[in-house]
Design a protein that fits this description.
The structure holds 2 protein chains of 2 kinds. Chain A is mostly helical. Chain A has helices at 2-21, 35-75, 81-89, 96-107, 112-119, 133-157, 161-169, 174-203, 206-211, 219-228, 233-258, 260-264. Chain A is built from 12 helices and no strands. The longest helix of chain A has 41 residues, at 35-75. Chain A is globular, with a radius of gyration of 22 Å. By secondary structure, chain B is an all-alpha fold. In chain B, helix 4 (80-111) packs parallel to helix 7 (154-178). Chain B contains 12 helices and no strands. Classes of the chains: A mainly alpha, B mainly alpha. Chains A and B meet through helix 1, helix 2, helix 3, helix 4 and helix 6 of A and helix 2, helix 4, helix 5, helix 6 and helix 7 of B.
């Protein structure tokens, strides 16, 4: 069984290598250029903050949409449960880019949604949905909704229904039962869901690129452009690191608030 | 109206009010849940619908005319067939390697106490908790570091895909291993099987559903991945990269055809699974 250890060491070295490598600046001389970090931060803090704001809004929207859905599937869908679970994961089966592009069709200026909104004067006669913050956040919400719904469903599904009966026996109203029993028991699912949604959403650049304009550019767009278009590797690498570092700090704060055993649990 | 309702309700007011409230709550919840499902389904319907569109100009944004043309000539667009084939190749190869490695790692983590076990656990978790862009760019940094020996292309994509699939495989298989009854293995040993035979005849078949699930998940992730692939692809085009390329100009309906095709295959597998589980549940219920 020693060879197992060798086999698992290979990818581990890869991972370690990878996490170390991005701190160095290939092709450029390695000179402890800490100013890269401060330059990157001062140049792109708008996009960085915007990324976290968008990701935060999208995560909240996902929670609001996903929780009742997961609750309904877990407790009300009966024999249709598995079918509805399949509905939740169905978007995964359509290529990410293509399903994001589908929102271009839906929100298009000539499309039905914009027309209706213009008719009821929610939008002005020239109002658009595409290329707005709304489109980008809605796109992110859509793409990461399953990540929120599935963990919540799992935690609700594991719940022992007798606990609810017990709370009823102890004269809890259904609201009280929900707040005191169901909600706390589904917390692990909510925590896992918010992490699975927030982290990839903060680094996402596809929605901003396809549904937005440079005005909605997120940090992922900057990193991608720096790496592949302007070939400015040091800045791109330090931005990646800043993004990861910020997420780590947020994770730690989050862990403090909700309790660390729930994060790894 | 209200007075009638009130007088009628008065004798058992609490129970009536609470029953009415529960009725509203129950059905509004159903409606809400179905609306969310609708939101999830909408783009899929649009993708499939527009794969049958006969667009007027270069843009496939507005519905014009129904046609099967795009499905019959799905590879009429330059580069699309090569991209799809490349995607399938990468996904198949990366999935096989990652599933094998991932299963072994899961076995090692659950079964053996070794130095650095905790660290391994964290390392496995890390790729899932870092944004793709960070993972992709750090791999790119690694590859760029040594440009004389490493050429960006098929193999860099392969390495990247194995990297991110492994984590998901480990998590899936680990979950199954934790609920694993080790007495079965001990029984096999007692019956004279050596370690390898036991592994082959007992451990592996019991893990098979988890390994299969992990493999399917890995394949799906690999075929769908854009961010990491894009950063590490060099000149190679997979299907998502192809889509990204045409998205900047005009997306031909053939892209919808391929996406719908992938979707239909996946959903057929999913439905078969739902059906199978349903039958299994029914037969066990019938048996007792």
């Amino acid at each position: 069984m020693l060879w197992l250890a060798i086999f698992f060491l290979v990818p581990m070295v890869f991972l370690g290598y990878q996490s170390l490598e991005s701190g160095l600046f290939p092709h450029f001389e390695f000179t402890w250029q800490w100013s890269n970090f401060s330059d990157a931060l001062s140049g792109y803090h708008t996009q960085l903050i915007r990324s976290f704001v968008y990701a935060g809004i999208a995560t909240l929207a996902c929670l609001v949409l996903a929780y009742p859905l997961a609750y309904w599937i877990a407790f009300r869908a009966g024999p249709w449960r598995n079918l509805f679970l399949l509905f939740i994961v169905a978007p995964f089966f359509v290529t990410y880019l293509v399903r994001t592009l589908a929102w271009l069709n839906i929100l298009a200026d000539q499309g039905p949604v914009v027309r209706v909104l213009r008719d009821v004067h929610v939008l002005g006669p020239d109002g658009r949905l595409l290329a707005t913050t709304f489109a980008v956040v809605a796109g992110i919400t859509y793409n990461f909704l399953p990540f929120m719904a599935l963990p919540i469903y799992v935690s609700l599904e594991q719940m022992d229904p007798r606990l609810l009966e017990a709370s009823k026996d102890l004269y809890a109203s259904s609201t009280q039962a929900f707040l005191r029993v169901t909600l706390p028991l589904s917390m692990p699912g909510i925590v896992a869901g918010t992490l699975l949604t927030f982290i990839p959403a903060a680094g996402d650049f596809i929605n901003a690129a396809l549904l937005g304009t440079p005005k909605q550019a997120m940090i992922g767009n900057v990193i991608q452009a720096k790496f592949l278009e302007s070939l400015d590797y040091p800045t791109a690498a330090s931005l990646s690191f800043i993004l990861m570092g910020t997420i780590m700090i947020m994770l730690l704060i989050y862990a403090k608030v909700v309790g660390s055993e729930r994060l790894t649990g | 109206m209200t007075t009638v309702a009130e007088t009628l309700a008065r004798p058992s007011r609490a129970s009536f009010a609470s029953r009415a409230w529960r009725f509203v709550a129950r059905h509004s919840l159903t409606v809400y849940a179905l609306l969310v499902v609708g939101y999830l389904m909408l783009p899929i319907v649009v993708v499939i619908l527009f794969s049958f569109n006969h667009p007027t100009g270069r843009f496939n944004y507005v519905w014009h005319k129904f046609t099967f043309e795009n499905w019959i000539h799905w590879n009429a667009v330059l580069g699309i067939q090569g991209a799809v084939e490349k995607s399938l190749e990468v996904a198949a190869l990366a999935t096989i390697v990652a599933t094998a490695l991932g299963t072994l790692i899961a076995l090692a983590i659950v079964r053996h106490r070794f130095a650095g076990r905790g660290a391994t656990n964290v390392l496995i978790f890390l790729p899932m908790s870092t944004p793709e862009i960070v993972m992709g760019s750090s791999l790119l940094a690694l590859f760029l570091n040594d440009q004389n020996t490493i050429q960006l292309g098929f193999w860099t994509i392969f390495i990247a895909h194995v990297m991110f699939i492994i984590s998901f495989v480990v998590v899936t298989v680990k979950a199954r291993l934790i609920g694993f009854d080790r007495h079965l293995e001990e029984a096999a040993m007692d019956l004279g099987a050596n370690e390898w035979v036991t592994f082959q005849k007992v451990t592996l078949p019991l893990l098979a559903p988890a390994i299969l699930a992990a493999g399917l998940l890995g394949f799906a992730l690999s075929i769908d991945d854009f961010v990491i692939t894009y950063l590490n692809a060099g000149p190679v085009q997979t299907f998502p990269i192809f889509v990204w390329g045409v998205a900047r100009v005009a997306v031909p309906p053939q892209v919808n055809v391929v996406a719908s095709g992938i979707f239909l295959v996946a959903i057929a597998l999913g439905l078969a699974n739902v059906f199978w589980q349903y039958r299994a549940a029914k037969s066990t219920r019938g048996g007792t």
